[in-house]
Amino acid sequence: MERMEPLRRIEAGVLEVAYHESGPADGPPVLLMHGFPYDIHTYAEVAPLLAAEGCRTIVPYMRGYGGTRFLSTDTPRSGEQAAFGADLLALLDALEIDRAVLAGYDWGGRAACVVAALWPERCAGLVSLNSYNIQNIARAMEPDTPENEHSLWYQYYFHSERGRAGLQKDRKAIARLLWKLWSPTWRFDDATFERSAAAFDHPDFVEVVIHSYRHRFGLVAGDPAYADIDRQLAAQPVIRVPAITFDGIDDGVRPPAEAAAHAARFSGPRSHRLVPGVGHNLPQEAPRAFADAVLELVRGAA
Q1: Which residues fall within 8 angstroms of residue 9, CB to CB, at 6 or more apart?
Q2: What domains can be seen in the chain, in order of their start residue?
Q3: What is the pTM of this model?
Q4: What are the CA-CA distances from residue 288 to residues 31, 56, 245, 275 (Å)?
């Protein structure tokens, strides 16, 4: 079970970002963004497929994971969507990438959606699991169906101090349970899980996670540094860049039926695809389908 090494590091905004890079340095750039609770090894099979097709492929650890570190102890350990978008934009700037295809799921897909919506000139194309992934915090307290509420138990758990203590006590056990619940047909082995779980042994993992799941429900304030971005996201901005969106038929946290409701949030060319036998971690469960979607956008941008 190979790890994605060696890692490079670069200062970008409030972070020193650890990332894996492959493919030619002058190839069309692609950034692959992981989710919670996963890490860059989500793309262990996707990245080589893209690099082999000539893409400059960059897979960063998000804030609170792996080798990525905050530059200052004074920076709030925010997990809000505005921070994720700002981190991705800062990384593009630091790497001197004017425009790239942005692809991701869960937290990483949200970061990609934020940049695609607010800075479309920086996004050559978007691949996003679960379609429009920008949170509508103003409506977060509206109850959902009982089935959907049941799947969000972990979010409500993290709203309490008992949940914070539980995550601090055994983050790996919680993550492994979520992997099983969210991708019920994915038969991952111990080595695959442990390869990613090493990224959760991070001094800020718990704080970033807890803040993320409290902020999205309006229970805690965001980092004032991102207030302007937060205000823009509250308007639920339309995504105008070319997009390919996915849903795994067996996704245990975000039901595919929600995808139709997101159509109005895309005004550019968009293809939505349902993938049978796949859950929430689509890039790792169906790497060829994910890589093909990225390449389709790369070629379209060219």
Answers
A1: 16, 17, 18, 19, 67
A2: 8-301 (3.40.50.1820)
A3: 0.97
A4: 16, 17, 15, 12
Supply angle C-alpha 82, 139, 240, rounded to 5. Answer: 55
Residue 20 to residues 5, 161, 257, Cα–Cα distance (Å): 7, 35, 34
pLDDT tens-digit readout, 156-204: 999 999 999 999 999 999 999 999 999 999 999 999 999 999 999 999 9
Joined together, the tokens standing for residue 11 give: 């200062």
Rg (CA), the chain: 18
pLDDT in tens, 17-71: 999 999 999 999 999 999 999 999 999 999 999 999 999 999 999 999 999 999 9
Strand, coil or helix: 32: strand
Q: Is 123 helix (H, G, I), strand (E, B) or coil?
A: strand
CA 74 to chain centroid: 25
* Residues contacting 67, CB < 8 A, separation 6+: 7, 9, 18, 61
41-50 exposure pattern, b = at least 16 Cβ within 10 A, e = fewer = bbbbebbbbb
Query: CB-side exposure of 118: number of CA atoms within 13 Å?
Result: 23
Strand ranges, E, within 181-277? 243-248, 270-275
Q: How far apart are CA 263 and CA 267, in angstroms?
A: 8
Q: What region does 285 belong to: left with phi over 0, alpha with psi -120 to 50, or beta?
A: alpha
- Return the DSSP state at 220: S
